[in-house]
């Protein structure tokens, strides 16, 4: 691929970015687009309507960029939470490290690559991109020490910046926990795998167990279980409920209560610890520590399993009914499904690889030779089209991985999103990098992997050959995707249909979204991985990456300030994923450097790379021991201080009252989830007497469903179908 083809792709993406950003600065000023571009402000009630007749509305302006620049980190922490700040710290870290890398590699490594071989260079726009890679350095060259020096500078700078960021995020997490108000999750554990006792109900078993073994801390519990034999009937009756709701004018359904033994099957239970002043002191922390340290509650590890409960608004109710014994089977099944999906995804990757190789494309499709001989079309096909096809195919990945993460049995929404983030990250790095690095042929890929010891050398040869694809992917999936992110194309289209076709003028904040960490974080980390891997091999990529991260800094700040709502908070638990991915990128960069120095017959450079490799692994282990426990557990020191403050301030009675109804889950008729909740705050006598219950079925999703009404509707539908049948017969 020639440099002119890369410049063509850069020009196309620059034009797209300029047009979309200018259009965004105009559309965001229109009153009809408030719900699209100011969803967070609309949800918080802080949006002020501007003059709809101002001419300024139709003039592009960089005011949103200035606002994003002026916002402090403290304001972002208040608005978006610690997760948003941790995500933006990834951008800041990337800007810093790749600024250093760009200076070092573009002024030291790039000239060495370009003038490595004594050949006649063409005019720069017509120069092949391979002339700017390490492939242009001859074997045994003494200038390879420049690449080794750059490797040391990048690795040391990255480790220093990583340590500072990890330390800062860990401190912010501790401050976040210490400064947060009392939450129900601080006093609650989730209990699963409750053994069945034919002589008593599940609720009685829970009360008896925790009264016997945790009497000083036990307050009450809630049973959450899936409806059993009437599940199908309730699913069918849900449609009828909508008809009744419209006919009777009811707008909500009452929460139903029924005994746990009605549904059968192993339920889940919330155990809420006591928050009374005379029983909490010195007790609640010890009981919570049982769940935190995975202490066995019984001699059978598969019974009475306890975990820390998520916050009430973070609970993923649909998964609470899943028996504990099924979790390991579900994880294996989702792993196999993810691998199968990854293999299926080889098809679009193979198509992309075929488009990047112009000569093979002409041989496969002879009728395209005339078109591909034209310079503009050949540059468009090889420089822009492959990355666009791969980007379009990748739109199916995040929803699929989110579905897999839900099937695993995650009990919290933040945990589900974190799991999906890891899956999308692995999937993206594998398909965008490793599959594309080798060839478009699956058979040849298997032949490359058949010799494990040659993998570093094969990668060192293959990565520079894929320079053109990686650069165009950064331009298309990086620059253009940020413009599409700030434009919010799909919500904008939905808003146009709503306002101008359906004529619905109401700007309701109900459709506001939380930040899509499972899509944006893997993309940012992928570009960081490409930057580290290609820094000394293809230094020409670093300026394009740097532009991407600078643009991402403003775009994501703007989106957090105006668009996305922080619905739940994980306390910065995404940062260990960032740290591990960055360490993997550094180690992989060093392994590739070993292969390069071996191919270029430079034993001195190879020898100096080995200590760097060992030092990076030692740094990783130190950070894992020093900071990772802070993100996995809560510090007892901080929790004890929080308890003492609550006791001194007299808030314990208020906390006690909040705990009773914190995890009450009430759903409307059109909700698709099926969960039953029975509150057992004091005694089981809160359950209604079956003899005094009015006729009908009680269901938490549908409320009280009148059986007689269902019969009438079914009879009416049967009569209608009978009339239709007679008419058809005539």
TrEMBL record:
Annotated transmembrane regions: 6-27, 86-110, 142-164, 332-356, 376-397, 424-443, 524-556, 577-598, 604-623
InterPro entries: Csc1-like, CSC1/OSCA1-like_7TM, CSC1/OSCA1-like_cyt, CSC1/OSCA1-like_N
Alphabetized UniProt keyword annotations: Calcium, Ion channel, Ion transport, Membrane, Transmembrane, Transmembrane helix, Transport
Membrane topology per record: Multi-pass membrane protein
Domain CSC1/OSCA1-like 7TM region, chain residue ranges per copy: 330-597
Subcellular location: Membrane
Any Pfam family hit: RSN1_7TM
CSC1/OSCA1-like N-terminal transmembrane domain segment(s): 5-163
Region annotation Disordered: where it falls in the sequence: 670-692
Sequence ranges assigned to domain CSC1/OSCA1-like cytosolic in this UniProt record: 186-249
Protein family (similarity comment): Belongs to the CSC1 (TC 1.A.17) family.
The protein, known as: CSC1-like protein RXW8 isoform X3
UniProt source species: Ziziphus jujuba
Gene (UniProt): LOC107420635
